[in-house]
């Protein structure tokens, strides 16, 4: 079955849909966690620490977190690899362009590929900035995520990169969620409106929820 | 050189294959008497099938299922595009699912009568018998026929009958049946049992030692001309309605395969029996390249009328009820709008000739759904005929829900074709003709929804049984050599013909000749024919031929994709066939079915048959281009359905 | 009407192609688009030029032969086949761009004619019900619920023209393939081959070099027969179901 999945364009789309939904689920949790920043450094830092101790005493310190990280990395790799291979197939299938050009399909559909690349680059920066601290502006303080977040969003480029990426994320989810539903065969004519609404609501909530943090820092609500 | 009209009469021709005995037992008897080919030996036999429509597609698939090696051809880019796909209304079958008194015998009776007693009883009865199996076969293949809420098949009525025996798939029955056959064909292609040559057109027949042994065909992409050999050749290349230039046939449907076979010795029967379909969209101007049919099923609910007064130019909506003439309902009260096609067409022509036609040039009559919409509601009408109404609106830019449709008769089908016996064998041993390409089952007029029935009956059931007998009796153990003089001759003739077409380099396009020929045929050999007109046409056709060979201009070369060359080559054959059609129409000095000779009509203007003189099928034998052919008569014997003056009043 | 046409001209599959410009005059509103091209070709022949090659046959919107991209739209501005498009959809003085279907699985044969045999091979891979002639049971032995029959019909309407592929930015044949899969898989007669059909047809579709589906919806917008976009989701469901059910080496 694995081979059938991976050898087929429909199978690869399934891989993309499932990995995308895993990441989407993670993002919902991540976004809710982020909002704790509006309740002060104590609560936010406590939440960050709790992430490392989830599952104790059954799990050792950070085991759960690593487990989540492994699943996420697998999802990202699967998603990106399928996307790359499918895109190559798509481009090869349509080598000659029409002379008469037309603006086609919705913005979100057309920007899936570029949006995906933007998001991939963003994830790298995001990890280097707030997880490892390698690319953090000012001094990165492990165990003090509240301050680290404020540092990042106190720079203009930190805000710009983050907000642009979150807008890309919104568009990506808007088409991606609906698209995943089609790939998994959930979509049909009667359900179409429901699925599109859910996709739009998810995209909007996640984008707004994530962008609230830099906006909060910029406006001084979070300091 | 003798005058073309001075034909000679040769020996009569007779069907020797239909067994004696009660008509309902003949098919079983024939199948039992026919020799069989051992299944293990079948793959050693190659059968060529030309065409992939309902007849060719179903025959190719079935022969391949039986184990024969099939080599199949179509000029289209895919076998799925054969013109059977355009049939709209439905397919008849004597299932009697409606419990309305239908039976095999009634379908047999209706078809013989509908054909105005010019068809062979044995063949028609077999067709009616097989009709029920066709529906079973198609349902098993997944053809999505219309169904009722109980999940069972729905039927509707068609012209010329008083039972509801027409199975349909909305207005696309031909498409669905053809795709069924195409899918069966595809299965056999995938299994390696059929070698499919799409975009390859048959240009001639290879006859070796008096038997059909192959064809010459041109690859339409590369222009390469090749010979293909087989133990038997089946022509399923359709009808010749395109002789008229404007018809409901596909643009590329052509008569080359049957005409070339005729030139090689196959008799051509009843060429003047052409069907003019009453409900087509009228032409809009000289640019018109083809005509579009509106399904006969529309006559179930639409009412046909013209103004009572001559030259009434008021819009339809402003003509009050008592100033309208629902002429079919008036003249034929018991069948009303559902009279057979030939009668409906002629009636439309008559009212237009009286000056009561509507629309541009007065060449049209109204087909009005106002009553149906009032009675059933717009929604029900939409459900039943929506796609046809849309098509009409797209072509005419008029809304048929609000203003009545305008319709006019157009050439639609040809009952004539290659003469075949009960086994569907032509007069050349090893050459079979099925579907519209043969002349067999419809006599002088075909009933609606019977073409699909005949195509599939021939392809799925009749030919696969009868061809066994020929192959068993003629085991060709020898391969035909490409060096055989007969092969080299036919190849050289084909090369020469195409080379000549390219060499003329004149000043007229192929279409201009086709249009001229078509207009001549429509005028003199169309809905009504006279001796004077036919003689005029017979004088004019040789002149057109002469002019064609002096003035035709075909650009490009023969070694490439060249649509002008394809067209020009088809016109060569149309011109010769047109001549034979006119001669056949001239010699048959009676009216019957679609062949209406003005000299032969009843006092109230109906077709008057002359059974004492013309109760035969006219099978013509080719002599030479422009030379008088030889007539062979096949006497028609009616043991079960006794010829009467057809009455639909 | 007077029009300027810019038409893709390409001598054969191996030759380079380019757009050529032609002026046509005396075009009637009632002409079909193909009759307009006939007019151009008549002029070209008399001038001794090579007429424009294009596929066409029934000219009543059902055979699926005609296949032109007109001003960037497969089959032009109306939702119909090219042969059913009429010149009243254009204005006097318009410039019209005419190009062939573009997809690597549909190589150009000449001018506006492309090779669509890839579609035939997809059908050959499983787009049928194995019902040899003569083996059929009585038609009424298996009733088919009307909604299923209607669903099958809606998908069976596909004419195989390839507009879906031409319109898709990925050159994907998902709509074509799904139409046949859905037509046959919903019927009780198609059930025995339900799994192999969808797996084999999708496999062949991939092998032909068609692109994947990114659900842009262009295909369904271009489809002259209105095969709906959810058709693709329905096929995906069939495919996943088949993948689970069929154990393959």
Automatic annotation (TrEMBL), chain A:
* Residue ranges of the TM segments: 21-41, 66-86, 107-128, 160-177, 198-222
Task: Give the signal peptide range.
Answer: none
Q: Which domain of life is it from?
A: Bacteria
Any one cellular-component term (Gene Ontology): membrane
This protein's record includes keyword GTP-binding: no
- Please provide the record's keywords in A-Z order: Membrane, Transmembrane, Transmembrane helix
* Keyword Cell inner membrane (UniProt): no
Q: What's this protein's name?
A: Succinate dehydrogenase
Higher taxonomy: Bacteria, Bacillati, Actinomycetota, Actinomycetes, Kitasatosporales
From TrEMBL, chain B:
Gene3D superfamilies hit by this protein: FAD/NAD(P)-binding domain, Fumarate reductase/succinate dehydrogenase flavoprotein-like, C-terminal domain, Succinate dehydrogenase/fumarate reductase flavoprotein, catalytic domain
| Pfam families (UniProt xref) | FAD_binding_2, Succ_DH_flav_C
Enzyme Commission number(s) from the entry = 1.3.5.1
Give an example GO cellular component term for this record.
plasma membrane
UniProt keywords (A-Z) are: Cell membrane, Electron transport, FAD, Flavoprotein, Membrane, Oxidoreductase, Transport
- Catalytic residues, chain numbering: 341 (proton acceptor)
Where are its TM segments located? none
Q: What general EC class does the enzyme of this chain belong to?
A: oxidoreductase
Annotated Fumarate reductase/succinate dehydrogenase flavoprotein-like C-terminal domain residues: 514-648
What does the record say about its membrane topology? Peripheral membrane protein
Domain FAD-dependent oxidoreductase 2 FAD-binding per the UniProt entry, residue ranges: 47-452
**Which InterPro entries does the record match to this protein?**
FAD-dep_OxRdtase_2_FAD-bd, FAD/NAD-bd_sf, Fum_R/Succ_DH_flav-like_C_sf, Fum_Rdtase/Succ_DH_flav-like_C, SdhA/FrdA/AprA, Succ_DH/Fum_Rdt_flav_su, Succ_DH/fumarate_Rdtase_cat_sf
The name on file for this protein is: succinate dehydrogenase
Q: Which organism is it from?
A: Streptomyces antnestii
Q: What lineage does the source organism belong to?
A: Bacteria, Bacillati, Actinomycetota, Actinomycetes, Kitasatosporales
TrEMBL record, chain C:
Tell me which Gene3D superfamilies the record gives.
3.10.20.30, Alpha-helical ferredoxin
The answer to whether keyword Transmembrane applies is: no
Q: Which InterPro entries match?
A: 2Fe-2S_ferredoxin-like_sf, 2Fe2S_fd_BS, 4Fe4S_Fe-S-bd, 4Fe4S_Fe_S_CS, Beta-grasp_dom_sf, Helical_ferredxn, SDH/FRD_Iron-Sulfur, Succ_DH/fum_Rdtase_N
One protein family per Pfam: Fer2_3
Cofactor(s), names only, from the UniProt record: [2Fe-2S] cluster; [3Fe-4S] cluster
User: Which residues belong to the signal peptide in this entry?
Assistant: none
Q: Which GO terms describe its biological process?
A: aerobic respiration; respiratory electron transport chain
The entry sums up its family as follows: Belongs to the succinate dehydrogenase/fumarate reductase iron-sulfur protein family.
- The identity of this protein, by name, is Succinate dehydrogenase/fumarate reductase iron-sulfur subunit
């Amino acid at each position: 079955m694995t081979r059938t999945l991976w050898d087929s364009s429909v199978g690869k789309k399934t891989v993309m849909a499932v990995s995308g939904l895993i990441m989407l689920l993670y993002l919902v949790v991540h976004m809710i966690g982020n909002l704790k920043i509006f309740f002060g450094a104590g609560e936010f830092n406590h939440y960050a620490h709790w992430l490392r101790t989830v599952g104790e005493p059954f799990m050792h310190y950070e085991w759960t977190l690593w487990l989540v990280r492994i699943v996420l990395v697998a999802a990202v790799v699967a998603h990106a690899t399928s996307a790359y291979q499918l895109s190559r197939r798509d481009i090869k299938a349509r080598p000659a362009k029409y002379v008469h050009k037309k603006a086609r399909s919705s913005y979100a559909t057309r920007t899936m590929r570029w949006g995906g690349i933007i998001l991939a680059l963003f994830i790298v920066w995001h990890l280097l900035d707030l997880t490892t601290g390698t690319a953090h502006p000012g001094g990165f303080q492990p165990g003090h995520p509240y301050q680290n977040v404020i540092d990042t969003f106190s720079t203009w480029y930190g805000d710009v990169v983050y907000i642009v990426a979150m807008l890309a994320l919104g568009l990506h989810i808007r088409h991606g969620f609906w698209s995943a539903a089609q790939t998994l065969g959930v979509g049909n004519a009667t359900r179409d409106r429901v699925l599109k609404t859910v996709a739009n609501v998810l995209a909007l909530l996640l984008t707004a929820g994530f962008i609230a943090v830099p906006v909060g820092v910029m406006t001084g609500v979070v300091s | 050189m003798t005058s073309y009209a001075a034909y000679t009469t040769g020996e009569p021709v007779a069907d020797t294959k239909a067994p004696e005995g009660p008509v309902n037992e003949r098919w079983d008897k024939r199948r039992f008497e026919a020799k069989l080919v051992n299944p293990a030996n079948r793959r050693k036999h190659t059968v060529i099938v030309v065409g992939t429509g309902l007849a060719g597609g179903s025959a190719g698939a079935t022969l391949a299922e039986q184990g024969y090696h099939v080599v199949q051809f179509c000029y289209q880019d895919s076998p799925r595009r054969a013109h059977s796909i355009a049939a709209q209304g439905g397919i008849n079958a004597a299932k009697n699912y409606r419990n309305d008194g239908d039976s095999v015998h009634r379908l047999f009776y209706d078809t013989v009568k509908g054909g105005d007693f010019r068809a062979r009883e044995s063949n028609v009865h077999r067709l009616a018998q097989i009709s029920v199996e066709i529906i079973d076969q198609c349902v098993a293949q997944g053809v999505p026929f219309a169904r009722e809420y109980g999940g069972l098949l729905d039927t509707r009525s068609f012209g010329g009958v008083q039972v509801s025996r027409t199975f349909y798939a909305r207005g696309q029955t031909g498409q669905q049946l053809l795709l069924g056959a195409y899918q069966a064909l595809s299965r056999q292609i995938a299994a390696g049992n059929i070698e499919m040559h799409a975009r390859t057109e048959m240009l001639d027949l290879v006859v070796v030692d008096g038997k059909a042994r192959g064809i010459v065909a041109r690859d339409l992409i590369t222009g390469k001309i090749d010979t293909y050999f087989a133990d038997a050749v089946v022509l399923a290349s359709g009808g010749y309605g395109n002789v008229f230039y404007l018809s409901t046939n596909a643009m590329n449907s052509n008569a080359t395969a049957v005409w070339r076979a005729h030139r090689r010795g196959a008799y051509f029967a009843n060429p003047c029996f052409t069907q003019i379909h009453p409900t087509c969209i009228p032409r809009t101007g000289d640019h018109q390249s083809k005509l579009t049919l509106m399904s006969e099923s529309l006559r179930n609910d639409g009412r046909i009328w013209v103004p009572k007064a001559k030259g009434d130019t008021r819009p339809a909506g402003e003509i009050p009820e008592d100033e309208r003439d629902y002429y079919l309902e008036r003249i034929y009260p018991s069948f009303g709008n559902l009279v057979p096609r030939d009668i409906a067409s002629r009636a439309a022509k008559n009212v237009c000739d009286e000056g009561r036609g509507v629309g541009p040039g007065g060449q049209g009559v109204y087909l009005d759904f106002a009553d149906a919409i009032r009675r059933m509601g717009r929604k029900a009408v939409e459900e039943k005929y929506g796609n046809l109404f849309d098509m009409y609106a797209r072509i005419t830019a008029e809304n048929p829900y609000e203003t009545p449709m305008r319709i006019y008769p157009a050439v639609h089908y040809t009952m004539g074709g290659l003469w075949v016996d009960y086994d569907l064998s032509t007069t050349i041993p090893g050459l079979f003709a099925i579907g519209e390409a043969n002349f067999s089952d419809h006599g002088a007029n075909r009933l609606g929804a019977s073409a699909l029935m005949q195509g599939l009956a021939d392809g799925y059931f009749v030919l696969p049984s009868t061809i066994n007998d020929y192959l068993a009796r003629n085991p060709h153990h020898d391969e035909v050599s490409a060096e055989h003089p007969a092969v080299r001759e036919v190849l050289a003739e084909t090369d020469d013909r195409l080379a000549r077409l390219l060499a003329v380099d004149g000043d007229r396009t192929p279409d201009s000749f086709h249009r001229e020929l078509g207009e001549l045929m429509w005028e003199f050999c169309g809905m009504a024919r006279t001796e004077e007109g036919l003689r005029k046409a017979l004088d004019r056709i040789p002149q057109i031929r002469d002019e064609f060979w002096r003035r035709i201009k075909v650009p490009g070369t023969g070694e490439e994709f060249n649509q002008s060359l394809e067209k020009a080559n088809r016109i060569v054959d149309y011109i010769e066939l047109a001549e034979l059609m006119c001669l056949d129409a001239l010699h048959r000095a009676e009216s019957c079915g679609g062949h209406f000779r003005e000299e032969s009509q009843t006092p109230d203007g109906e077709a008057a048959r002359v059974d004492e003189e013309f109760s035969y099928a006219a099978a013509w034998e080719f002599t030479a281009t422009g030379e008088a052919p030889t007539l062979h008569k096949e006497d028609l014997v009616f043991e079960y359905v006794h010829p009467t003056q057809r009455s639909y009043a | 009407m007077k029009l300027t046409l810019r038409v893709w001209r390409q001598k054969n599959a191996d030759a380079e192609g380019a757009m050529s410009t032609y002026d046509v005059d005396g075009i009637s509103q009632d002409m079909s688009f193909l009759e307009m091209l006939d007019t151009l070709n008549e002029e070209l022949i008399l001038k001794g030029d090579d007429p424009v090659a294009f596929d066409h046959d029934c000219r009543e919107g059902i055979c699926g032969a005609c296949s032109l991209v007109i001003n960037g739209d497969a089959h032009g501005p109306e939702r119909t086949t090219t042969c059913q498009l009429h010149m009243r959809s254009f204005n006097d003085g318009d410039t019209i761009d005419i190009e062939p279907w573009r997809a690597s699985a549909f190589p150009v044969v000449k001018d506006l004619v492309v090779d669509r045999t890839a579609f035939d091979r997809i059908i050959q891979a499983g787009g049928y019900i194995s019902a040899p002639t003569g083996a059929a049971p009585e038609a009424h032995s298996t009733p088919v619920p009307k909604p299923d029959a209607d669903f099958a019909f809606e998908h069976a309407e596909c004419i195989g023209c390839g507009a879906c592929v031409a319109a898709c930015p990925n050159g994907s044949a998902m709509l074509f393939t799904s139409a046949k899969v859905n037509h046959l898989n919903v019927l009780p007669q198609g059930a025995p081959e339900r799994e192999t059909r969808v797996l084999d047809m999708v496999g062949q579709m991939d092998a032909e070099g068609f692109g994947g589906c990114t659900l842009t919806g262009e295909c369904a917008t271009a489809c002259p027969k209105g095969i709906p976009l959810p058709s693709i989701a329905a096929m995906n469901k069939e495919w996943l179901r088949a993948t689970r059910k069929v154990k393959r080496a």
